[in-house]
From TrEMBL:
Part of the Bam complex. This is Outer membrane protein assembly factor BamB. Part of the outer membrane protein assembly complex, which is involved in assembly and insertion of beta-barrel proteins into the outer membrane. The lineage of its organism: Bacteria, Pseudomonadati, Pseudomonadota, Alphaproteobacteria, Hyphomicrobiales. Belongs to the BamB family. Pfam families: PQQ_2 (PF13360). Residues 91-324 form the Pyrrolo-quinoline quinone repeat domain. Keywords: Cell outer membrane, Lipoprotein, Membrane, Palmitate, Signal. NCBIfam families: assembly_YfgL. It is found in: Cell outer membrane. It comes from Enhydrobacter aerosaccus. Coiled coil: none annotated. Signal peptide: none annotated.
Amino acid sequence: MKPAVFATALVVAMTLTGCDKFKKSDNVHKPAALVKLASSQNVISPLFSQGSNTKVSKRFGSLRNKTTISQQPTAFRVAYDNNGYVNALADGSVQAFDGQGKVLWSTKLKQGLMSGVALDEQSRVAVVSDSKGVIIALDRATGKVIWKTPLDTATLSPALISQNRVITLGNDGKISALSLESGAPIWTFNTQNPNLSVRGSATPIFFNRNTVLVSTADGRIHALNIDNGVPIWSKRFGISKGSSDIEKISDVDATPVLDGNMLYVVSYSGQLVAADMASQQLSFVKELASLKSVGTDASQVYATSLDGELVAMDKITGTVNWQTDNLSYRGLSNAVSIGNYVVVGDAMGYLHVYDRTSGALVDRKQAKSDVAVLQFINNRLIAQSANGALSVWQVNR
């Protein structure tokens, strides 16, 4: 299928699809109470935590008067390499830890920070963005500032670093590439920002070694040449569904997931799209509104909705294998697959572990802050709050 035909088919499929619906709600609801856990399989165990900047109640009772807790549109993200972790907090703190949580260095920047950390491929440089729109490069080994480059607007997601390029997406829709060595601007690519959008943005990702994919507030994904910023293609994945500015919001704020040839994109306006990028054909489209990336494993894709539903689908056909709404309106994080289980966090600081095959709840743990984003690497689960507070968990297989 030609790219133009693929784009047309995408719009038609989104407009006419009559598949399962997991829509965002305009109603006010109380967060679901915790389901009683008969016995825990102790799938995850705490290793260390850092920067608890959101008070989490020990009892759900103090939160029962809260209404409609939805997903956080932005979230910090820790970076990791063979030497450990580099994390940033909203208050301007940046710290490096070894694999056991021992602090290697700590730096306090003057301005508050707006996004997580990006590391270059050689682990020489850590890049963050402050609240004034300044991109800051730090020495990975010492935390000393190497360079600062002011941009026109704030950058709300971590940068992507490759081939001496630091690629960022600004809140104004401008995609920029800076020199990793000096911070000097190399190229920019302007996208069309709508009148109204969700305050958040997806992290740029690799499509291949020479191409970056960037999701923007107009519902599009742009494929750009990393070296020079020349556009290769642009496709719309988020479709507005009304005439008012609010109804027209079609942001793709969840970072797309490329798993083999399959690209999974979920939008605020309510579409989860799976596209085979090798054949340029759609695999499936589901109605699901979310600000969080999907998780995948060998056979399934896992998604969390704005309303707090967790859905497990066949990764090729989109057939729903199981779903649960027992976390409704608890402000869910993204879901991640960890072996035989899938984990999701919530805004009240809980981590919920489900059996990936049956959807049964098998474990629950509480972090020291809200859980807005999860990562799984080297048999460790990394949970982070909307402001950057971090906890690391061992996965017990």
